[in-house]
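Researcher: Let's try something more involved. This one mixes different molecule types, so please make sure each is placed in the same coordinate frame as the others.
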Amino acid sequence: MMTTLLKLEGIETYIDQFHILHDVGFEVPKGEVTVLLGRNGAGKTTTLRTIMGLNPATQGSVTFNGKDITKLPPYKVAKEGIGYVPEDQGIFGDLTVGENMRVAMQKEDDSTHERMEWVLNLFPDLKTFWNKPGGQLSGGQKQMLAIARAYMNESELLLIDEPSKGLAPIVVEKVMESIQEMKEKTTIVLVEQNFLMASRIGDRFYILDDGQTVHQGQMNELEKDESLKKKYLGIA
Amino acid sequence: MDLFFNLAINGLATGMLIFLLASGLTLIFGLMDVLNFAHGGLFAWGAFSGVWVYDLTGSFTIGVLGAIVTGLLLGVLTEWLIIKPVYGNHVQQILITLGFMLVLSEMLKVVFGPNPIAAEPPAGLEGSFQLGDVILIKYRLFIILIGALVYAITFFILKKTRVGLIVRAGVMDKEMVQSLGINIRFVFMLVFMAGSALAALGGILLAPYSGVIYAEMGMEFAILAFIVVVIGGMGSFTGSLFAAILVGLAQAFMAYYVPSLSLAVNMLLMAAVLIFRPQGLFSLKGGA
Amino acid sequence: MTNLQMNKSTMAYTLCAIALLALPFGYDNRTILFLITQVFIFGIFAMSYDLLLGFTGIVSFGHAMFFGIGAYSVSIILDRNEPTMFYLVIGAIVAMAIAGLVSFIAGILTLRLKSHFYAMLTLALAGLFLVAAEKWRSLTKGNDGFVLQIPELFRDRTNLYLTCLISLIVLFFLVRRFTQSPLGRILMAIRENEQRVESIGFDIMHYKVIASVVSGVVASFAGVLYILSLRFVDTSVFATEVTLDALLMTIIGGVGTLIGPIIGAGIIEFAHHWLSELSDVHWIFERWIILFGIIYILAVIFFPRGIVGSLMHMWGKKRYKKHNQTKNEQKKVAS
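Model: All components are placed in one shared frame. Result:
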């Protein structure tokens, strides 16, 4: 039996006076990679921000690990065990790689050290550039730092917003591989425009359109469904 | 030569006082995007309450502690009553903190009376000593020492502790800091309290230096602190030290050589920075 | 606003104006008439402030500077020459030219930056002018200030009253025209959403600087009238309190309403007068500014529309609701 880690129901979100999310609902099973697809402006990023409490929902509920986190402020959401990798990666440019990692570490015990060791194994570059300011890293390295940092925050769930954006294809490949490896340790919600990549590592998908979840299913089903891809994703 | 030294020490001492005021202002601005126009009021309150305790107990040290406690308390009060309700709205913040400045200054007159109050350095710091043919006034050296100490301690906290790490990260991207499980509002309150305490410390240290304190000194020094914050780069701690010393020195030398231009020179410095490097000389945020 | 309502408000203003014009001929309490004259002057001053804060969203903390520039320019020119109408006009022109120049420079330096910068720079600049007025004794006679002669015409209190009132009326309608012009609409759009205005291709700086200059010039004119009413000038015209007065009047009266600041000027001036009289009863009334400071803070938090703004809001709520409903329906149809 699969357990649901995160569940959104009937989410409505406003940013200023703009009604961005009208009706977003989905479930994220533990241990899987759930991919949010949809056109630009469909509300994918806002959905992640709503989960984090950065743009709180006005209607609906967000349940994580059986607990209602809809109204929690961002720092409490993070403490519940959700790590966030924003679209711009949110690297603290003047802090070193090590300092970037340390901001996320709430405590220093054995389990944190274990996590650290594991994640540095996965991203050896971070070890190499440990004392380099985050702002001087390459795009791919920044992406890796952001993912590693979010993981250090005791996360059971990672929200990753468009990790392939602005990266060279070969770097995208690398980032995707590491996300696939992260899957062993955490559950992942991935927003991705790069359908090819998404289809490779995704287990389940949801399609957002105009602030609503309009379609869902298993990733391998979507790959075959040309009409659906065309309609919502603009892929011929 | 001794004239040069005296002016330099004078300038350094003034610079350190401005630094105590400006450092809190710049950190609060950098971290929370709040420009606290009431900051000078905390400076003046530090001076008056500190001198009051000093007169009452006869101990300058207790007076300084009194000022710091006043700063901490007023800091909590300001953050809670004035800043929190208008958090995120720039125009309202600017308007309300200036209004609070007005109330703070007038309250000073109600509590301590409308007349200026005299203050003298404590016995141990009175007078001067000679070094070669240069006469050094002890109290000014004391201020420079305290200023350097405050800089060193704050620098250590910012660079070497977890709270400092969070503050530095918060200056760059506060949303991300929150997303990493840190209650930035709580950190903000701590910074606000610390900044207010530094301002109050500056106030009580100024009292024996200038010999007299008055309600309007808050606004006068606040203007200098604003100039310093712009020159140093809004949000930059080290920048505020260098800019404060620059402004202090410029003030001291101009006051001696071209007295009528002493405020103008600071304005010109600020205008030059605004034209050529609007992000300030030591901007933390890199480009913008 | 429809034509009918427009006429209604214009009619109400006209009636008020006529009543005020007739007042000095039926009422001769000199203290009160002097006070009302002050209200007119500070009404103009506060209105110029509203043009910045209310219509463009710019916070200036140095508005006293323009007031002071107006006051000193005309005082010095009248004092050094004959106190005739000719020199008064010259003085006023010089005052407005200097104010325009200073606000232009302050504007191009800081208006492209965040709102904090303009507030800080104007505060510092005003401080500079205050110190200059204190130190440049050969020109200003420093803190002592000086008494000056003014043209014959304005020595008569009634004439002065009428001049200030007419100036207020003319400027009110001019500024209102300005805010309703295409330019004024752009300014208001900037207040609402700067990026959007910029993205449709307007040079925001340009418009903000215009607002800053117009506001500075009008404020300096208020300073000129102020000197005519006092016949004395000292450094207090540059004091931060003058800026704070404008802020209080604008916020309490109603930001962005133009008439609000004028009403605010009335409230503050009369309250100041009465509370100062009460200081004989208890010294706390000498610190009346605390009371206003607290009201001001509460107003910013709970009552940001001010008196006129709140009244208009209450009065217009029903219509606004209706308007919104139709808007929403249109939106539904559109989507």
